[in-house]
Specification:
This protein is an all-alpha fold and 167 residues long. It has nine helices and two strands, in the order H-H-H-H-E-H-H-H-E-H-H.
């Protein structure tokens, strides 16, 4: 029995698409290259080579581009700080986020917001944007993971951002 031409190529595309779908679904989460490569059934090294051959960029470049696209949307629509958006879209460093953002869009995040805000509807209040995106849990968990804020202070009270409520 002979395999039709291109069948192996389609199987590879199907495997890579599974991994790409996982990145599209979980783009805001910290993603491990080995775990993403496992979606395709490849080692991390073979996965990077195959992904780049098919999509023209490495998985890291693709994921960064997706995160920047989401950040662009949030900068245009949500009343959140650049730092909050940086964290929400999955970057752990504001410097890396700003550099990547400028490289992809040609301007820093704050300039991007200045250029695009006011051209459409008013900004969505940050609390609604965070609630909709599940960002409260994500921001709190990421802060705890980094050992800063979002957890109890030495006296056992919670240190929630912008909380002016009495303990």
């Amino acid at each position: 029995m002979t395999t039709p031409p291109g069948t192996a190529h389609f199987a590879q595309l199907r495997q890579l698409r599974r991994a790409k779908d996982a990145m599209d679904r979980d783009w805001a989460e910290p993603l491990d290259l080995d775990a993403v490569a496992a979606h395709a059934g490849y080692s991390r090294y073979h996965f990077v080579r195959a992904f780049k051959a098919v999509y023209g960029q490495t998985p890291g470049q693709y994921l960064s581009r997706r995160r920047i696209e989401r950040a662009e949307e949030l900068l245009r629509t949500a009343d959140l700080t650049v730092t909050e958006i940086c964290t929400l879209v999955g970057f752990t460093s504001l410097g890396t986020f700003s550099t990547s953002f400028k490289k992809q869009t040609g301007m820093p995040p704050s300039d991007y917001r200045s250029r695009h805000v006011g051209r459409g509807a008013t900004l969505i209040p940050g609390c609604y944007a965070l609630l909709w995106s599940g960002g409260f849990k994500g921001l709190e968990q990421r802060a705890r993971d980094r050992g800063r804020g979002g957890g109890p202070d030495p006296e056992g009270r919670r240190q929630d951002r912008n909380s002016g409520e009495a303990p």
